[in-house]
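HUMAN: Ready with one sample?

ASSISTANT:
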Amino acid sequence: MAIGKMKFGIFDHLDRNGRPLAAFYEDRLRLIESYDAGPFHSYHIAEHHATPLGLAPSPSVFLAAVAQRTERLRFGPLVYTLPLHHPLRVAEEICMLDQMSRGRLDVGVGRGVSPFETAYFGVDPEHRAGMFAEALAVIKQAMAGGPVCFAGTFYQYDNVPVELEPFQKPLPPLWSGVNTVSSAEVAARNGFQFVTLSEVGDARAVTDRYRDVAAAEGRKDDLMGLGRFVIVADTDEAALDIARQVYPTWHAHYHHLFVRHGTTPMSGARPPEFDQIRDGGRGIAGSPASVARMIREQVAASGTNYFVGQFMFGNLGIEEALTSVRLFTREVVPALA
């Protein structure tokens, strides 16, 4: 739902919070129902494996449930880690989800940010970029109706018939995660809309370059998302108290595999305390008025047009998350109109 030229979305790692798995998934689906009733354009979920950072390692399985529990909310992976999937199987799942939701699927694609996760599945991390490019070409060909004929380094198909088709024609919107100027160029040339988790200054360099390349490609209305942790409470103090308690759990999940392997993320370790990322960084916590101010300032400074909140993270409880979403919907969004 647009407010002026801005739209609002959700990003979700589905990181572990201590709840039994059956209850964990049901809590998340309840929360997604509140997104569906709110002012949100799309719900984006990460794909991770062998880590508490992500308990939706099969995005299609979880999103099939989302399709049935929602009516108007768009949704999709951000991203399918294509080197870990058979491209013909992914194309079939995309078609099924798009048809089951009557055209509400947003398809994020990528090569995967964690070399450990892909290596666990027997994929050489050095092959990820090549596998991604070939898999994407195969998926696009399959969704165009096939038959699929492809001769690549990693994938070879000879006249494979295709029975399924997407609801959205010619294919659902494609998305990617973008955090560098070079990845912004790739996204713009491929027609991907994107979400960035960068600091405001870095995000501005990304959006400026993306706009330039997209304009040269004849596009101007793509969504450029700014992802942020969001906690809304009645007062700044209450929101910050919650954020300070739950963020360290997410932080431990984010670094889990890197710690296990004795290294750090290529982009560098994330700050361990919420106060290090608040108000100008990747964390937003406060009263509705404070949250609206921070969003307004960061969206303007970053040049984005799509604010993507991560409302559930770490060991945040479901009732606290529902309260945060309710305040965001009732007070923050109208303040941004």
In short: DSSP finds ten helices and 13 strands in the chain. Residues 236-260 form the longest helix (25 residues). The chain has a mean pLDDT of 95. The CA atoms of residues 119 and 125 lie 6 Å apart.
